[in-house]
Specification:
The chain is α/β, with parallel strands linked by helices. It has 22 helices and 17 strands.
Length: 526
């Protein structure tokens, strides 16, 4: 299936059919869109970024959300995550924001985190996920279908409440990671005081009906034509185009029409302030945008565009909002705080938290730290490994990368170092959200804990993860081996029996079964 490259088939990018293909991609694949080698997501889902965002949102609420008085039954303060995807970011955020320590120091206010997506299958997955159920039971987690570009009420699936435009009075917090890059943009080139619209024609070079293959096999051709700066119904957008038209020496830029429309819709949900914390591949500085070549659609699993946060900043200013930016060069992830309808309120706490946890030492800096650590994972000493695990809040990629060095270093560790290792392993397991097909870290964690004779901790890890571990052969074997080493061999046997029904030839399971039963069960099955 192809589209002819005749002039009438070149359209503004925001009107291209690829956005409906994008919606179909996420709707059909559901949580499978975030499996390994599909849509990249680590940089916006690790524990470090979740903790950073939680602190910034706390600052926003401190400035704008009054504490709850005794007997007060007002509406909750909602935190809405757009396109929550695999759920990994949400889990990290929830673990920190609603931890016992944070709840003890937080001013009394009812806060509800709402995970949203355009995929019904993904939402069903979240609602069934065992690691999210404690937060549902606490009354702090809800779910909703939400398309940020369409006017429809937000129906909360747990509380059965409905959020409609203008019906909230409390301040609204929104999280948008890798969202603005995946909703409609337009493309332009400004040269010699003229503005050229960069239209696109897409070609789908496959007869497959599989959405991932369709997206993978889409190519694009571009065509520029002279245009004015009165293109949009929104006059503020047109004024930004006029500013870019006049830029000395010209520039190539994307125009985030989807992001700006989404911000308007989200801000309209409440009569109070709305604060959106966004992370994307993009740039705010005009000097960075001026150095860019003609803009094209990127492919990282799906379609995406480099986000022009400079245009968003100008638009927010035109709406009398406030825009927070790190204000310095970023290596991978541009981050922005977008405050709409702030009124005359001061933003002391919000600005402080944004500067401390995003500007000064934020998720982008952590990502670069991880890159440096990766260069010597195999040779890190035990103190370095412990420091990396603490700094990353138990990040799974840090743990996996350092695991070989950790195993090598443990025999020479003193008792206090071993106690520290045990504590960090529990944190790694606690923050890991099980949502993909990668090996479960609990398998290795159990092995190390048992090697350190940390039986109490091994029982804890086994109990909390058994439902996940028994779903795979390696995990089931780890369960049986752990039960055996904890002196519960009679419980290990049925686990091995179920494993051998699924995989009759599993050699390690057969060997362990023989040791546990003196060969009787293996002979019987044979």
């Amino acid at each position: 299936m192809t589209t002819d490259e005749t002039l009438e088939n070149f359209v503004p990018l925001s009107r291209s059919p690829i956005w409906e293909l994008q919606r179909s991609y996420y709707s059909r694949l559901g949580v499978n869109a975030w499996q390994p080698n599909m849509v990249p997501n680590y940089v916006t889902t690790n524990p470090f970024i979740a903790q950073s965002y939680a602190r910034v949102i706390e600052g926003f609420l401190e400035d704008f959300a009054p504490a709850r008085k005794s007997g007060d039954a007002r509406e909750p303060h909602y935190i809405i995550e757009l396109g929550a995807g695999s759920g990994r970011f949400a889990y990290g955020f929830l673990k920190f924001f609603f931890s016992k320590e944070q709840m003890e120091v937080r001013r009394k206010r009812d806060v509800v985190y709402v995970m949203t997506d355009i995929s019904e299958a993904t939402i069903k997955y979240w609602r069934r996920h065992p690691q999210l159920k404690p937060f549902i039971n606490m009354g702090v987690l809800d779910f909703a279908y939400l398309d940020a570009l369409k006017d429809h009420p937000v129906d909360l699936l747990v509380s059965k409440k409905r959020i409609e435009p203008g019906k909230l009075s409390n301040p609204l917090a929104v999280i948008a990671n890798y969202v603005f890059d995946s909703i409609p943009h337009d493309l332009y080139t400004a040269v010699n005081g003229k503005l050229m619209a960069r239209h696109v024609c897409h070609r789908i070079e496959t007869d497959s009906t599989e959405i991932d293959e369709i997206v993978q096999d889409t190519s694009f051709v571009y065509h520029e034509e002279l245009c004015g700066t009165d293109i949009y119904e929104n006059e503020d957008w047109n004024q930004i185009l006029e500013k870019y038209r006049k830029v000395k020496d010209g520039m190539n830029f994307s125009f985030p029409v989807g992001a700006m429309a989404a911000l308007d819709r989200l801000a309209a949900l409440t009569t109070g302030p709305m604060f959106c914390l966004a992370g994307d591949f993009g740039a705010t500085a005009l000097s960075v945008l001026q150095d860019m070549p003609p803009r094209k659609i990127a492919r990282n699993g799906t379609y995406s565009l480099h986000v022009n946060f400079n245009a968003i900043s100008d638009y927010v200013a035109s709406r009398k909002g406030r825009f927070f930016t790190p204000g310095h060069a970023k290596s991978s992830l541009e981050m922005a705080g977008i405050l709409m309808n702030p009124g005359r309120r001061q933003t002391r706490h919000l600005a402080h938290q944004f500067n401390q946890h995003i500007r000064d030492a934020g998720p982008d800096e952590f990502f670069m730290l991880k890159k440096l650590a990766e260069e010597n994972f195999d040779s890190h000493s035990l103190p370095r490994i412990l420091a990396l695990l603490r700094l990353s809040y138990g990040d799974i990629k840090i743990f996996r990368g350092c695991s070989a060095a950790l195993l090598k270093a443990l025999p020479g560790a003193n008792s206090f170092e071993k106690e520290s290792v045990i504590a960090e392993l529990i944190k790694v397991d606690d923050i890991f959200f099980r949502c993909d097909r990668t090996a479960d870290p609990a398998i290795l964690i159990l092995q190390i804990l048992l090697g350190l004779d940390a039986k109490k901790e091994a029982r804890y890890v086994l109990t909390r993860n058994r439902v996940f571990l028994e779903q795979t052969a390696d995990g089931a074997l780890a369960v049986a081996d752990t039960l055996h080493r904890l002196g519960r061999a009679e419980e290990a046997v049925p686990v091995l029996e179920r494993l051998l029904v699924r995989e009759p030839g599993h050699r390690q399971a057969k060997d362990l079964m023989a040791r546990l039963t003196g060969g009787r069960m293996c002979e019987k099955s044979a």
